[in-house]
Write a structure and sequence with these properties.
Elements lengths: L9 H34 L7 H22 L4 H23 L5 H22 L5
Length: about 130
């Protein structure tokens, strides 16, 4: 009687790998905010007095943290640029209605941050072979 060792299901392994990488990117974004936020506040305290400027500065802090981690992990510059764009696109879409007074600042901040998550997943799907 021969016993076979079960091999991991390739699709399940790939899904687990993608989810793990996605969570790494979220943590790297948070680290970027936590590390660069106080630096930016120290160097230029009034920089984020306006909500529109604050969301772009925060997106930059997150993109720097995430981009640094992606580069450390060996990702290509185009993949880093696409993932970084996922930080800005939700805000870019919401800024015009915000400037027109149709979207309040709290909504801009909240919806922009929540929309980053599917935007990141889309960027990963777009370059799936890299992840």
């Amino acid at each position: 009687m021969t016993t076979q060792t079960p091999t991991p299901h390739p699709r399940r392994h790939r899904t687990r790998h993608l989810v793990g990488h996605y969570l790494e990117m979220v943590v790297a974004m948070l680290v970027g905010m936590l590390v660069l936020g106080p630096v930016e506040e120290f160097l230029w305290p009034a920089l984020d007095d306006r909500t529109d400027v604050a969301v772009l500065v925060m997106a930059t802090n997150m993109a720097v943290g995430m981009g640094a981690w992606m580069r450390f992990r060996g990702h290509s510059w185009p993949a880093i640029a696409e993932m970084s764009a996922a930080m800005y696109v939700p805000f870019a879409v919401l800024l015009v209605p915000f400037w027109l007074g149709a979207v309040p600042g709290g909504t801009l901040m909240t919806v922009g941050h929540v929309a980053m998550l599917p935007a990141m997943a889309l960027a990963m799907w777009w370059r799936l072979d890299e992840y």
